[in-house]
Design brief:
With about 350 residues, the protein is mostly helical. The chain has a single domain, classed as A middle domain of Talin 1 (Up-down Bundle), CATH 1.20.1420.30. The protein contains 14 helices and 2 strands. A two-stranded antiparallel ribbon has the order 1-2. The two termini are about 35 Å apart. The relative contact order is 0.22. About 5% of the residues have low confidence.
Length: about 350
């Protein structure tokens, strides 16, 4: 789906910011502007991958896939909105695994009896996410149950980041044949040529990549500057605003692609997007934010999630893993995932400060 018509919100946001308009309008406008920019960033990354090779292209895609969310969170860190940053991390995991996957399975399965996918690769991806999520859960549990004078966030972030690098070596180098099989199944040579024709030229791609990244940076600064007063005026807590809105603006392009592939019965790609995005949030985005917080913002970021956030992460990861065991799905499972997401969203809405 093409969201480029939403680019009109870039000048609207700049104008609202210039005239110091209502923060709620600035927040909504900047968030909508980020949606098409994230989509263009993904297409630019895909186009550049054709020129730099499969391995470097895969690394670039894995890194740039979460660039909008990372940039938004960096500005939030600079503003000292640590609780909102952690809420956005929670929202990305919960949103991709429950909302994104739920929409993909529901919409993709409406005209099909079953949706089938590679059970081995899907199980491997969900297993990696399950193990990675332990890195978010342990510091929070340790904080509430053990010596609160000790901090584990940085050490665990190092472990997560190293594991992320090794996972890239696994998927892009030593065991890439397991993941190439999905791409072969998803498209034949004729479709691949059609896709290649739609991609941009190298110079054009680099220019678009730079311009879009600058655009996301400017819109992210406006978004994070307005989110706190906007949330307050709407009667929302920072955690709810982070879990729902920040995560949604940063991930809606990935969710749309996941739904698109599911409609084409390419569930391996659809699930790879949803689970892969969540895994990258845990193993790449979170450690980078921890490391960056030592240089920007009033104090270092920690991984002390509130208990309800921990519960939400555990629920999302375990439910997602349980659905991947049999290698097939149907639209009712999508309804179940969406139902769990709405239940958690209601919980976050009424969660006290």
């Amino acid at each position: 789906m093409n969201y480029n018509f939403l680019l009109v919100f870039i000048p609207i946001t700049l104008g609202l910011n210039w005239f110091e308009a209502d923060p709620t309008l600035v927040f909504a406008s900047s968030g909508l502007a980020i949606v098409p920019l994230a989509g263009l960033l993904g297409k630019a990354t895909e186009s550049l991958s054709v020129f730099i090779g499969e391995t470097l292209g895969g690394l670039l895609a894995a890194t740039m896939g979460n660039a909008p969310e990372l940039i938004i969170s960096l500005f939030a860190l600079k503003a000292g909105l640590h609780d909102m940053v952690k809420a956005a991390i929670t929202g990305s995991i919960v949103g991709n695994l429950l909302l994104g996957m739920g929409l993909a399975i529901f919409i993709g399965g409406l005209d099909k009896v079953k949706l089938k996918f590679n059970r081995i690769s899907a199980g491997m991806s969900s297993g990696l996410l399950l193990l990675a999520s332990v890195g978010l859960i342990v510091p929070a549990i340790f904080h509430f149950t053990a010596d609160q004078g000790r901090e584990l966030s940085t050490e665990i972030s190092v472990v997560l980041f190293v594991a992320y690098i090794l996972s890239l070596v696994f998927t892009l180098k030593t065991h890439r044949h397991l993941f190439q099989a999905q791409a072969v199944k998803a498209t034949d040579g004729r479709e691949a040529r059609k896709v290649e024709k739609k991609l941009w030229k190298k110079k054009q791609t680099i220019i678009i990549l730079v311009v879009v990244t600058i655009g996301i940076t400017i819109m992210s600064e406006a978004l994070t500057g307005a989110i706190e007063p906007a949330a307050e005026s709407l009667g929302l807590t920072p955690i709810f605003a982070g879990v729902i809105f920040l995560a949604l603006f940063g991930n809606i392009a990935d969710m749309a692609n996941s739904v698109r592939f599911a409609r084409k019965d390419q569930m391996d790609l659809s699930m790879g997007i949803s689970v892969g995005a969540s895994t990258q949030v845990v193993m790449f985005v979170t450690p980078v934010l921890i490391f960056a917080s030592y240089f920007i913002g009033p104090k270092p970021l920690d991984l002390h999630f509130v208990p309800f956030e921990v519960v939400a992460i555990v629920i999302a990861v375990l439910i997602n893993r349980s659905l991947m065991i049999d290698g097939e799905s149907h639209w009712m499972e999508g309804v179940m995932l969406l139902g769990v997401y709405l239940i958690l969203a209601i919980g976050f809405f009424f969660l006290p400060m």
